[in-house]
Design brief:
Number of helices of chain A: 6
Shape of chain A: globular
Largest sheet of chain A: 3 strands, antiparallel
Distance between the termini of chain A: 35 Å
Oligomer: homodimer
Radius of gyration of chain A: 21 Å
Largest interface: A-B, 62 and 63 residues
Strand order of the largest sheet of chain A: 1-3-2
Strand content of chain A: 5-15%
Helix content of chain A: 55-70%
Number of strands of chain A: 3
Order of helices and strands of chain A: HHEHHEEHH
Chain lengths: 158, 158
DNA sequence: CACAATTAAATTGTACGCAAGTGAATTTTG
DNA sequence: CAAAATTCACTTGCGTACAATTTAATTGTG
């Protein structure tokens, strides 16, 4: 069971395999989620990242761009054009903060606010896309959360 | 054991919330993985999706574009330009199959083959970055695999 | 064999995702 | 208070993702 004489580290072969499968599993599942949500979101004209922004606004009200980025782990290079589209679709407003004109405050229009109810209905109607138990979902969420935390801390070594 | 009058359907509500959280956890962790890989992959001049393609080729040898797409769950709209870049970087070759000229067979150049040796370093670094036990990684991989399977089947309802 | 249906890859158009750079506003320092 | 450093959002450029279309080759059918 212990390592061979030739190599001190016996594990690598299997670890590489598992590790590869885990990172790919995350990658592929993210795409699968986006695809699963797509037919639902198409009805209200949102993409999945746009939906995430709307979720943040529904929950927390008006926010500066930076805070939205912190919530979703996205930078302004991603958010600026995305928010511009949401604004063009009449779902949000963007106004410069009078107190600090570097900031842009994002808020919901009545239309954007109203969409919350609509989405809720649709999501409930569609129901359990995941097909997992509540316990499994919570377990995965927590594991992924820890994993993400670990990965985030790794970036400093370069 | 039926619900009280105040909160008629407590479970669905909770389930919906969990699904949203799980969905975002997968989304954000996928980005975290890509970022964690980036400084390492930068050294060999690969992006993360390009690295996945190379993994498939290292494991399975020369393959038509379609098969690579099946392995990674990507279509030709994504793969065609990606493969073109790998070819321009001298890592792969693309030749039309003489038996069936609709197909393009992708194979590794000596340079691409040689790069396989460097993945050892890459894998080890990321494995450490993940900071999980082998058991945890295996557990998550399996859960995500099942989840992905369920999501794939959900798309037909639209 | 002709011709419709199918298949594989590439292309087009839209939308992320992120690095790097710009410019304006604010904060920090001397 | 003025100069330097920092912060915030925007923009540019590159590389995915994916739907929809195009082109070429193969298969299926009469």
């Amino acid at each position: 069971m212990k390592a061979q004489t030739t190599k001190t580290m016996e594990i690598p072969q299997e670890e590489k395999r598992l590790e590869k499968q885990l990172c790919f599993a995350v990658y592929a599942t993210a795409h699968a989620f986006t695809r699963a949500y797509k037919p639902i979101l198409d009805r209200v004209g949102l993409t999945y990242p746009q939906y995430l922004v709307m979720l943040v606004l529904w929950e927390r009200g008006e926010l500066p761009v930076k805070t939205i980025g912190e919530q979703l782990d996205l930078d302004s290079g991603t958010l600026s054009p995305l928010l511009k589209r949401l604004e063009q679709n009449g779902l949000i407003k963007r106004i410069r903060d009078l107190r600090d004109e570097r900031q842009v405050i994002v808020s919901l229009t009545p239309e954007g606010q109203a969409m919350k109810g609509e989405i809720d209905t649709i999501m409930t109607a569609i129901g359990q896309a995941a097909g997992c138990t509540l316990q499994e979902m919570a377990e995965m969420r927590d594991m992924l959360h820890r994993l993400r935390g670990n990965l985030g801390r790794a970036g400093t070594g370069g």
